[in-house]
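Example record

The entry below shows one chain as it appears in the dataset: sequence first, then structure tokens.
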Amino acid sequence: MSKNLFSAFQPVSKEAWKNKIIKDLKGKDYNESLQWHSEEGVLVEPIYHSEDLEKLIEDYNNTLLNLPSKPNNNWFVLEKVKVDDAENANQIALNLLNEGAEAIEFDCQEKTITADLVDQLTKGILVEVAPISFSNYKGSISFNASKHLSFKNDVISQQLATNQKVDLSQWQTSLAKSEIASVYIDGALYQNAGAKMVEQLAFVLAIANEYFNQLSDKEVNKIKNLQIKLAVGSNFFFEMAKLRAIRKLIKVLVNQYAIDFESIQIEATSTGINKSTLEVYNNMLRNTSECMSAIIGGADVIHLAPHDSLTDQSEKGRRWARNISHILRNESHFDKVIDPANGSYYVEELTDELADKAWQLFKEIEAEGGFLAAWEKGTIQDKITANREEQIEAFKKGKKVILGVNKFADASLEIEEINKLASALAPLRLSAFFE
């Protein structure tokens, strides 16, 4: 019956659809009326068609490179715990795991990392079930840690963010002592500083390449895990395409080194650029949109900053942030379909466009001698600064909207200029101009 139903209708080409749209416009220009360019320079069409997907499949020799790299669409709900006192931080973590958290990141607040500190913090936690990570620590990993623990130490980005000269000697020493090593790249830092999506992707690739180039073949073979952190904003379809694009790109790069990774993990976190102190519940809505993009984009770990993190950061706020993920999983069933965007004409096209533009920029960075050489020349900072200024200008003029701040806002609010940011990687928060 269904066969007869579909055979009754003739296929309609993309060109036929376009001609119909042009006719309905009654003289208005198709390009000016319905097409638009994104910040990333992507031309967005009013319609996408199976012909677009067929062309992509043909370009990739009948295999879309965006196929899922994990057997499910599940993700870990990450909570962060600041370490003032190790015993207290451990108890907080245990309580959070009982209240819906599924992974813990211990912010060591520049404490020296030792085997004893790791043991104290992970006491009573089944690390085989709940992944544990450590960030913002001093020292190197000179002890054999469990393979279920990860150490988030993007030396390049951390030192650049604090205006230091990059020194990878300690990182190399730590890796040499390890039996199994991992590489962590904080791409969220560049998004929150104002980098465009294409730049974020290219910078992550270039930083990964810097790390790999610092190592001998023997040392490269020790690397079993690659962790990439990306911040996700409100541009729903583009953000999911960005996460899908980084998987595609990183596979191309890794294949050049023949690294046999056990896992490539994408951590998604909510951006800080669009968050506001004026109407904090709007931040909860933004978190929901960003979480959906992250899930559909294939994130392995998701952390949402509470909607009130800029004000009082209540326990309820943390709980509600966790529950966004749980509602999307348990009530909306976002975990039931592997890579739900796969085959979508629009999302596949966006994924390919972002990946292609990012790869071209990556090659330009490499032609300058790599990420650190480009940083020394000021190329990276110039790109970030230029886009940051564009965003600020668009925000002030109302072309870039943050609801409740520069649109449908309290009429008594006045714009106040913020001080010039001290570093090219200092976080940007657009709402600060109005608050």
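Notes for this example: The first helix runs from residue 2 to 7. The two ends are 61 Å apart (CA to CA).
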